């Protein structure tokens, strides 16, 4: 299943900025401004044009009761409804938004452990969901950490977020080995925790943001060039801005549903803007332009699709954790994606047999790849998978063929 955007919660638009839950504290309030908010959905935190965090989980969601100051837990909330949520972040502020989505294909990176705890006694609350008394055996458990419930040596359900961490004296930022603490998991648990389960926390790369959004445009007309590329006439939606740049990555979203249950499926996640034109003249950037044309290397583009341009941020590498894992083996020699054989490409992280086949076919067709990022985008890798190629792959000098993209005069 590909990514489906199911809803958007915007903070600062609700009648109340927050509510207080006994034993938990304040939950920030926002308004569902698109689609529906579904409890348990994955979420991205957006601030302005930057995506600050990904793989958050909508673990707790409550609404105020009608004509009352009391709150009640809800499983979903529709268009223009006010909700109060817990996602594993305490810094949600006015102007922020949570982009809610589902994606069974690409999950978070769980390759490095940060801490392991033993579930001593599970519990459940009607308002805040599942919680557990946990004793840490290795490393630490932190508030907001990405965790997995492990039973019998195997993960039980999808990765979750620590929504709250408490000791005898109140809320904690982290729980080291020693006296047990209470970990709040909310309603994320596909499998309820049991005594004897393990709660494994994973280390995540340090970053200021994950990607910068250049904007989105609506497709009004498409010309197929017959060589696997198209040129689309597009328009910036009223009241929004966009500053597309030639060479930037882009994705195509296809809206489905109605205003009250609008969703968008990401039909082409890893494209690159081949060309831009305004009034029939090629330009490098579309900043300040409302109507222009875009050249993309895809044929799956329709009227009313959305093209979203973005720039991924460099992510700092994970630091080694000696107590929890053996020292890493010496890094192998970098694989040249423009000359490597099939087995050599298969040794790179994230390259499945189908992606290796795609890489060899594209290399034969276009003569090679200008850099490792272009290689990753061309074969369909996600931004975090491309980051994992750095240091493991290189791209030797090649002479690329002309794209043959023409401009569409609108």
Describe this structure as you would to a colleague.
- The protein has four helices and 31 strands.
- α3 crosses α4.
- The longest helix is centred in the last third of the chain and has 14 residues.
- The chain starts with a strand and ends in a 16-residue tail after the last strand.
- The C terminus is likely disordered.
Sum this structure up briefly.
The protein is mostly beta strands. It has four helices and 31 strands.
Roughly what is the average pLDDT, rounded to an integer? 88
- Total strand count, please? 31
Q: What would you report as the Rg, rounded to the nearest angstrom?
A: 23 Å
Give me the secondary-structure category. Answer: mainly beta
What overall geometry do the principal axes of the alpha carbons give? globular
Low-confidence stretches: 324-331, 402-410
* Helix proportion range: under 10%
What percent of residues are in strands?
A: 35-45%
Main sheet attributes: strand count, strand direction, barrel closure: 16 strands, antiparallel
Please give the alpha-carbon distance between the first and last residues: 36 Å
Count up the helices. 4
